[in-house]
Fold:
Amino acid sequence: MRELHRKYELTPVINLSGPLTVYGTSVSSDAVIDAAAEGLRHHWNMDELFQRAGERIAEWSGAEAGVVTACSASGITLSVAACMTGDEPGKIGRLPDTTGMPGEVIVQKGHAVNFGAPLEQMIRLAGATPVEVGTVNKTTPEQIEAVIGPETAAGMFVISHHTTLYGYVQLERFVSIFHHHGLPVIIDGAAQDHQIERMVASGADLIVLSGQKYLSGPTAGVVCGRKDLVKALYLQNAGIGRPMKVGKEGILGTILAIEDRQQQGVEGWESEQRARAEQLAEKIGALTGIAVSIQKDLVGQPVYRVKLAIDCETLGLDAAQLASLLKESTPSIKPRDHHTDEGWFLLEPVHISKDEMDFVAERLQALAGMSAEEKAAARERLGSMARSERAVGDAFVRWLA
Structure:
């Protein structure tokens, strides 16, 4: 049912791109929705609610402690703050003024990504200074050692499809380097919740996850790790964390999302996602000019996607043009189109229904079957248009212009 789409004249979306913020991230279970709604109906002792959430996070992750934040981006900023201030009220009250505190956060250049905003900006929001080391495709342990000094507060490691996937210092070695110097490591693993055991086992001191990506909770972040640093992070609510506070509905929805995950388990979830990708690929079927295959996530999440490799000469459309035509459908089909310049894109069916899957297959078949004249008209209209519509607030900014 899409009553609010109709009431407010909003474009319905079939999200095959993954749990991206620009498309409203994920779709929650009824249990998560009910928990968030219950939160909005009552008052709560918020410290007690944070404690219960922390207990659930620790039990699920295997870390010493956990806390819910407003989102993973705020979790990054508050983790950096915690590493600089510890639990000292005077320092917490001074941020983003870092006078008298180590204030540098070291990150490999291939990990200095933009996930919708620059990672480095999330570091700077705490008052810290990001220090890039190495090059985009090559960082060595020796280069990291060379920049660690008295001003170093922490190391930041990123696990994401946005990062360089080779030539970097691997997680376990990265952690060992910083621990040798008595320094903490923060992992930005926003969409990597299925890899929580590996991240905790690495010895990283704070691990930042998104509550609303594959955990499928409400907008929130999950941070787990060392008890002293989780405490220091929570105490930022009396400082720079105040404008980043999470609501009661976010905390309760996150608790239920974690309980959902515990009940299903990683193996059950992976089996379901593989079956969904296979089902979508079968529904799409054989299309002239489009090679259909299944690809597993490249950075370790148990997510399976359908890859559409486009033979432009045969199909009569390139990958970017086909992706654009899918977006123009009603409902709008949003593919994972990071690689259209390379002649392919992905369809991630994690958060779509059976009816939506049927519609996607029918729409692809219709587009592939257009006449030569219709495809020529589409090519002329679309031209070499922008390959992605992920600029923040495109429609809103146009409305304000």
